[in-house]
């Protein structure tokens, strides 16, 4: 069984972050290990509190797992601040890790901030050049490109801007924005520096999408670990996620998470 590492925040509600990642990895039949960056007090209604761990605590967790276990892929989720991003980048270089999926988590669906503003620059300078793929949503992509949220921009142009930061692939997720999309499709755009490829799925009319980004990036990392090429890894991850959204069940009083284990039925 291939081993996959997630470096992310804990979601006490179980729908996003580390918890979403481990569930996703398990149903993809890879072994999931975790390095925790922050402990969020969170439920389906929002984030009530965040305790970010020190970069040192993140560093020692990384040393423990990387000294011992050989990972075929890894993903990052909530990294919270510049110090943690720098520490993660150092360890990825030190252990020559490949198949890095970077989900540059900035804000929770609930609107709560999960990244310090100054850390955006650190992401671009330190972590993106080491990434196989970065998976920003439309809002994150605009922030990374230094654009105003309201400004409309051609997606291909935006993906090309983000490729300049040095990853091998960029995937811009259009999920949330598709709510305004007449076509009722959830469309994501993959770019490898030469070709654009669109991934279209049915747009499912629901607010129960807590953890979609975490789940997608964990599925992509699992598929890369199993040796899939990027196009297939993204296509299969998106198919898995679409069914996980469709098969959601009610967990709390707010935005419920996706059903990570729909395919075990
Ligand atoms: N209602 C929906 N129906 C179908 N697919 C969706 C829906 N919402 C999101 N998606 C898909 O989920 C994936 C994650 O996209 P999204 O834009 O939600 O990312 P995100 O904002 O990083 O996620 P999150 O913040 O929830 O972790 C994409 O593949 C997107 O197309
Ligand atoms: C620990 C953690 N990591 C990531 C997210 C983003 O997920 P979402 O936007 O679906 O709330 C989150 N809410 N919590």
From TrEMBL:
Assigned keywords, A-Z: ATP-binding, Kinase, Nucleotide-binding, Thiamine biosynthesis, Transferase
Catalytic activity: 4-amino-5-hydroxymethyl-2-methylpyrimidine + ATP = 4-amino-2-methyl-5-(phosphooxymethyl)pyrimidine + ADP + H(+); 4-amino-2-methyl-5-(phosphooxymethyl)pyrimidine + ATP = 4-amino-2-methyl-5-(diphosphooxymethyl)pyrimidine + ADP
Molecular-function annotations in GO: ATP binding; hydroxymethylpyrimidine kinase activity; phosphomethylpyrimidine kinase activity
UniProt superkingdom: Bacteria
Keyword Nucleotide-binding: yes
Any single GO BP term: thiamine biosynthetic process
One of the Pfam families matching this protein, by short name: Phos_pyr_kin
Membrane-spanning ranges: none
GO terms for cellular component: cytosol
InterPro entries found in the cross-reference section: HMP/HMP-P_kinase_dom, PM/HMP-P_kinase-1, Ribokinase-like
Annotated EC: 2.7.1.49, 2.7.4.7
Location of the Pyridoxamine kinase/Phosphomethylpyrimidine kinase domain: 11-259
Pathway(s): Cofactor biosynthesis; thiamine diphosphate biosynthesis; 4-amino-2-methyl-5-diphosphomethylpyrimidine from 5-amino-1-(5-phospho-D-ribosyl)imidazole: step 3/3; Cofactor biosynthesis; thiamine diphosphate biosynthesis; 4-amino-2-methyl-5-diphosphomethylpyrimidine from 5-amino-1-(5-phospho-D-ribosyl)imidazole: step 2/3
Signal peptide as annotated in the record: none
Family per record: Belongs to the ThiD family.
NCBIfam families from the UniProt entry: HMP-P_kinase (TIGR00097)
Descriptive protein name: Hydroxymethylpyrimidine/phosphomethylpyrimidine kinase
Higher taxonomy: Bacteria, Bacillati, Bacillota, Clostridia, Halanaerobiales
């Amino acid at each position: 069984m291939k081993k996959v590492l997630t470096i992310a925040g804990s979601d006490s509600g179980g729908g996003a972050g580390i918890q979403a990642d481990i569930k996703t990895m398990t149903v993809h039949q890879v072994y999931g290990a975790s390095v925790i960056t922050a402990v969020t007090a969170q439920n389906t209604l929002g984030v009530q509190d965040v305790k970010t761990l020190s970069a040192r605590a993140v560093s020692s967790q990384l040393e423990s797992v990387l000294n011992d276990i050989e990972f075929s892929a890894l993903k990052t989720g909530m990294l919270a601040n510049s110090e943690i991003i720098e520490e993660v980048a150092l360890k990825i270089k030190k252990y020559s890790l490949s198949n890095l999926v970077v989900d540059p988590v900035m804000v929770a669906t609930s609107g709560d901030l999960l990244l310090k503003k100054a850390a955006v620059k650190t992401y671009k300078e330190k972590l993106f050049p080491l990434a196989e793929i970065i998976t920003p949503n439309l809002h994150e992509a605009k922030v990374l490109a230094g654009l105003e949220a309201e400004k409309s921009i051609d997606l291909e142009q935006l993906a090309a801007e983000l490729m300049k930061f040095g990853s091998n692939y960029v995937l811009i997720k259009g999920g949330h924005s598709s709510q305004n999309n007449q076509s009722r499709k959830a469309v994501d755009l993959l770019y490898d520096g030469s070709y654009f490829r669109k991934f279209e799925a049915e747009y499912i009319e629901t607010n129960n999408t807590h953890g979609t980004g975490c789940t997608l990036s964990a599925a992509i990392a699992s598929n890369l670990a199993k040796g899939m090429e990027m196009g297939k890894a993204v296509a299969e991850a998106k198919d898995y996620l679409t069914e996980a959204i469709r098969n959601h069940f009610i967990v709390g009083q707010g935005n419920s998470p996706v059903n990570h284990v729909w395919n075990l039925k």
